[in-house]
Design a protein that fits this description.
Radius of gyration: 18 Å
Distance between the termini: 33 Å
Strand content: 25-35%
Structural class: alpha/beta
Shape: flat
Strand order of the largest sheet: 3-2-1-4-5
Order of helices and strands: EEEHEHHEHEEEHHHE
Number of helices: 7
Length: 214
């Protein structure tokens, strides 16, 4: 019986279709498509109409793929993160997705997102007993997880994703030198809890997650 998960990120939607096999899972299909649901509205706390239309186009395409692989709608788990959880019109967005695709979108908070990132990295990257810092850069939020192979010591999601920072500081392209300075000051202020946690847990390596690192 196949299952599907969909990550509704601020910039990119990702689809993974898999089925149980040999105590694990066999990947049947995986695909990423740009939806950019944060564009044009994330700084105002909403998902713009054009962004909703882009999202529906991508999700309708994903629905054709899940149907083609025999995935029942109740076995599709679409998960939304920063752009949707902070949007005033999130209920409208979720309803329109359901009407267009029959997908039931689940909105997760930053703590759960950070925990899922840790589990994903641990499955794909060798961790050891030393403390590592995982950094996942998204369009809406950035997650930091201090951890080792056995446990999470500290985790937090900050609403400082790429789209938010561009809207706030990048009035010109290239970014003006004065804005660079203000950006550094802003990050120093926002990331003070992270600075304190790194001093406490003394991470020895940085593990980059998500497309920005690639």
């Amino acid at each position: 019986m196949p299952y599907a998960i969909i990550d509704l990120g601020t910039n990119t939607f990702q689809l993974l279709i898999a089925e149980p096999a040999d105590g694990g899972f066999k990947t049947l299909h995986e695909e990423s498509r740009a939806a950019k649901i944060g564009k044009g509205g994330i700084s105002d706390g909403r998902i713009a109409e054009e962004a909703i239309e882009r999202a529906l186009t991508v999700l309708k395409h994903f629905r054709t793929l899940t149907d083609a692989h025999g995935v029942a709608p109740e076995h599709v788990r679409p998960t939304a993160t920063s752009a949707v959880r902070n949007a005033r019109n999130q209920a409208e967005f979720v309803q329109r997705v359901r009407e267009a695709t029959d997908f039931r979108v689940e909105i997760i908070d930053g703590a759960e997102e950070a925990g899922l990132i840790y589990e994903g990295v641990r499955l794909g990257t060798p961790l050891n007993n030393a403390v590592s810092l995982i950094m996942d850069i998204g369009g809406g939020s950035v997650e930091f997880i201090l951890c080792n192979q056995a446990r999470i010591f500290w985790k937090r999601s900050f609403e400082i994703g790429g789209q938010r920072l561009m809207d706030r500081f990048m009035g010109f392209d290239p970014i003006a030198p004065g804005q660079v300075g203000r950006l550094y000051e802003y990050l120093d202020e926002q990331l003070l809890p992270l600075t304190n946690a790194i001093h406490q847990y003394a991470a020895t390596e940085l593990i980059g997650s998500a497309g920005s690192f690639e």
